[in-house]
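Table S4 entry, M48 family metalloprotease.
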Amino acid sequence: MRKLLSSGLTAALLLPTLLGVLPTAAQAQQRGLPLVRDAETEDLLRDYAAPIFKVAGIGNSPAEIVLVNDKSFNAFVPDSKRMFINIGVILEAETPGEVIGVIAHETGHIAGRHLVRLRQAAANAQIMSVIGMVLGAGAAVAGASAGSSQATTGGAAAALGAGGLGQRSLLSYQRGEEASADRAALRYLEATGQSAKGMLTVFERFAEQQVFASRFADPYAVSHPMANERYRSLAVDAQASRYFDTPAPAALAARHAMVRAKLFAFVNHPNEVARRYPKSDSSMPAQYARAVAAMKSRSRKAIAQIDDLIRQQPNNPHFQELKGQALMEAGRPREAVPAFRKAVALHPQEGQFLIWLGYALVASNDNSALAEAEGALKGGLQRDPNSGIGYSQLAIAHARQGETAEADLATARGLMIQGDFQGAKRYAQRAQQNLKRGTPAWLQADDILSYRPPENLQRRR
């Protein structure tokens, strides 16, 4: 798992949804969303989402699911193309159904075109008033979820002070959209033969957290209906479904447990991992978590623990990826190459594996491997074009082969991913001066030079 950015997530969790300020991954990074990449987790989420997207009518152009490195239970959609899910959703979800319920709800927003209508509803409000209202509402919701009466009352006060009845009207509009997305989620789950029990579990958990905080919250000054209201409005229909007691397929539940253990080990101290997954627990998720913890702590036993996982599941590409990553972090890139080659062989369509392979080949400092590295990196970037690491390593591979213009272009494309548009333009201009006019590479550089970021990003620079 790779962490792309470490700065904190804004407290106003609802701001991106309302104002639509996150249309690209680069902008998400620039605004401080701590994004993470993990092929195994992304594969699982895509499999969760695929049937939901299909029945919702967006299967031909499905939303990209983006992981946010935040332990809080939250998800949001900034537009019709992307769905952001905190890793906290997976960490807290004991069953696949809880995550699927979240995805179904967010899909309801996309399919219902709520984001478009919400922006239209906000269009007549003064922008600073809207921002103030959403910041306050976000603080209120965050406080209620955490059980903090002080945070809840403070957030509600900010929301009320920002624009009075105008804000209340807009929040009421958004509450209606949330309820609509909940009902849509029920329809999607029914149409795909899945239980809504996990979705109810989520609302039940939130309701328990809000028992105290809701005494201080103004239900008309928050954008989401209170959790107990959402539970009551859905429970009867959800429990009446013939699929309500249908569990998730065993294979899917097993994958969920593995990903949950892996994420827990990546984001918690090894001591905490040892408490959650003690040596007495011989399950595969527990072994996985302990192997990740050993890698993080640079334990000499890490490779042996990962090799033991591979012996038990020799065709699991994610174990091979973990071994390669462990060797890379131990400063042994040449030894990592076979592990990444095996991961690619087992899952050839996974762009992140190809990028890891190219990275290891570049880091091996073997000039005879640079052509292979370049091929792997280009193949990986075709499948995963948002990898900053992929572009930086491709730039190194080009530079070592004396391909200066191509190296500059790769650097420019990587800087675009990071949201450094000015730096990208400098390198694109340099590249274009040494590229033949009209070639694909020259045109790529020209696209970067012609790019104009949205006004809200220009103001931030």
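Residues 3-31, 124-173, 210-223, 456-461 have pLDDT under 50 and may be disordered.
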